[in-house]
């Protein structure tokens, strides 16, 4: 159901959206609309986008388009879907049990898991006024997200 | 007429000093008609003594009445003639006739009431309960006429005059009535009065028909909203268009409302507080749950329309039609389903401070999870004194200060918490207040080895804390056994 979420295909669009989302968590999903796992993730994202709309924005990036390859390389996206979290133009890192802390790979099991991650992002960053210190979130169990916060 | 008057006068002299009324028989002037009615009312009190209907009801014989009836019949026969609108309304003879008709219909109503009283008073000797069973004057008159002097009601067929339930009640009451048959002349007078009432009723119907046929000319706006039949009825009951216009809308709503239901019938289904407006097309076409609101709306708009008509502000009736449209639209709007509920987005985390509650109820609730004295003691230890443990030798759960200080008791008595007070009270009542089941030699005192005589039974307490043999699952004084945070 990606018609509910904006799909970005150009570098400029990604730039503007990262810059313009102030005081809200920005969730960017990198993937393809045809992929089955991507579709699952998109479904969860679409259903929860309204619920978190007060403190988060959700957008999709199509990795097949030419313009965005720069970002694909920058974030080192090889597996799809990959979700990157931003807050106030800062890239948020999180420990999800894998080696890669820069992004979240794969889909979420439940809507609530995704909402929990976003809420924690928001809380952590808001409680930390010095934005250039990057707090990290540790996600212990990727299947059902029980969040242990590590500042 | 004069000779008749004289003969009556002779009868009347001993009973009343109202000689004026007899001379008023010729009256065609409105002023005297008013007096007639007033005199009729005054006489009504003394009507019990009167034998004659004519002294009570004069309307039918009055000149005014016959004049107007003649004109009405003529007009009805001529059919509707479209009078020229150029003429000022007040000068139009038809309009005058209609105004007269309105006044006359009110007079006829009053007259019918007077005659009804007369009939009732006469018939009371025969069948006193009938007046409380049949309320409507015309129905009463018809029933009286049908029954006549008959004592056995099974021979009388009241079919069609009354609803069948009421016929049943009437027949049953008649079989146990305390009345006696009337003498012949009284009976004759009563039947005459009934005839008179029915004739008046017929005349009123004619007048109303006439008014109805002219309604779209008299009050175009009002008839645009409620229809000409109901408009005629409203005007007739109110006593004219200006009288109707002066009424507040709540009164207009109640014009023509039937009075209380008959005894024995449930009032749950009664359509309350609606009068003639109930018969309008708009009212009939609204679904039942919205009917009360629709009735109020109708009454309001029709009052407005009546006011417009009384001042002839809009002879073409467009105001009435626009009111009607408004009413339709409003009723449509009421029937719309409510807007679909949108799920609210979640609130921003930590932006809304948690609402902390306090008070007695919360404290009581917190008591259930509070740390008990026993646990507090078990949590502490004396310096240099080793604690006992459940498995002995330092294994198992430690007992802390429980069982120490030489009290010789491992069990600390459970403190009287406020919550448990109720439970303890009930338990006490049960064990000490047992009525009659225990033998007369038992006493509430207990002999204990340590303290000597004690009032409260310490054994009972020991049982509470629990012999492993007694199951506390079904205990009435027990609380939760295991509280775990999930």
Automatic annotation (TrEMBL), chain A:
GO CC field: spliceosomal complex; U4/U6 x U5 tri-snRNP complex; U5 snRNP
GO process annotations (BP): mRNA splicing, via spliceosome
Pfam families in UniProt: DIM1
Chain segments annotated as coiled-coil in the UniProt record: none
Family as reported in the entry's similarity comment: Belongs to the DIM1 family.
Protein name, UniProt field: Thioredoxin-like protein 4B
Species name: Citrus clementina
Source taxonomy: Eukaryota, Viridiplantae, Streptophyta, Embryophyta, Tracheophyta
From TrEMBL, chain B:
Keyword Nucleus: yes
Sequence ranges of Pro residues compositional bias: 336-350
Compartments reported by the entry: Nucleus
Domain Nop: 218-336
PROSITE patterns xref list: NOP
GO cellular component term, pick one: U4 snRNP
Broad class of where this protein is predominantly found: nucleus
Stored Pfam families: Nop (PF01798), Prp31_C (PF09785)
Gene Ontology MF term list: RNA binding
Protein family according to the UniProt entry: Belongs to the PRP31 family.
UniProt protein name: Nop domain-containing protein
Organism from which the protein derives: Citrus clementina (Clementine)
Lineage: Eukaryota, Viridiplantae, Streptophyta, Embryophyta, Tracheophyta
